Amino acid sequence: MFPYKTSIQLDRKSHQALFLQLANQMIQHIKSQTLAPETKLPSSRVLADQLQVHRKTVVACYEELTLQGWVESLPKKGTFVRSNLPVLEQQKLYDFTGMCGTPTTGFSFYGNPMLGEKAVAKQQGVMYINDGVSDARLTPID
Questions:
Q1: CA dist 31 → 35, 82, 115, 130 (Å)
Q2: Cα–Cα 20 to 30 A to 82, which of 39, 49, 120, 122?
Q3: Is the Cβ–Cβ distance between 79 and 67 less than 8 Å?
């Protein structure tokens, strides 16, 4: 049996929610094969009792893990680590550097010459409230 009580450390003073801390640590244990595929996880009541947290914290953690595809919940059987885990591969980002060395977006923006931007000189200590410019396609111009 996996020692959840000693393997999972929750920081109650952290700004991150307890269920997210628990979910992240469970994911790390699944990634490192400490929790092998098809391992049955303890019930929410048992795990909550071991970790001294509210049962809703464990339920929220299990829901998060289910949504991310790390575990599956089978009615009347329990929650299990999935046998076909999500494949996490780091992708290399495409370099959008243009000819002059400045980054470009790789696409063009729609622009309307009738909606010229006014350069506003910003003053120190003044708060500027601006809702922006409405979409010209939605505003009747005629």
A1: 8, 12, 52, 47
A2: 49
A3: no
Are 75 and 81 a contacting pair, CB within 8 Å?
Answer: no
Q: With 0.70 as the threshold, say if the pTM is over it.
A: no
Dump pLDDT digits (tens) for 33-49: 899 999 999 999 999 99
**CB of 26 within 8 A of CB of 61?**
yes
Compute the mean pLDDT over every residue in the chain, rounded to the nearest whole number: 82
State the Cα–Cα distance between residues 9 and 92, nearest whole angstrom.
33
CA–CA gap between residue 70 and residue 83 (Å, rounded) = 9
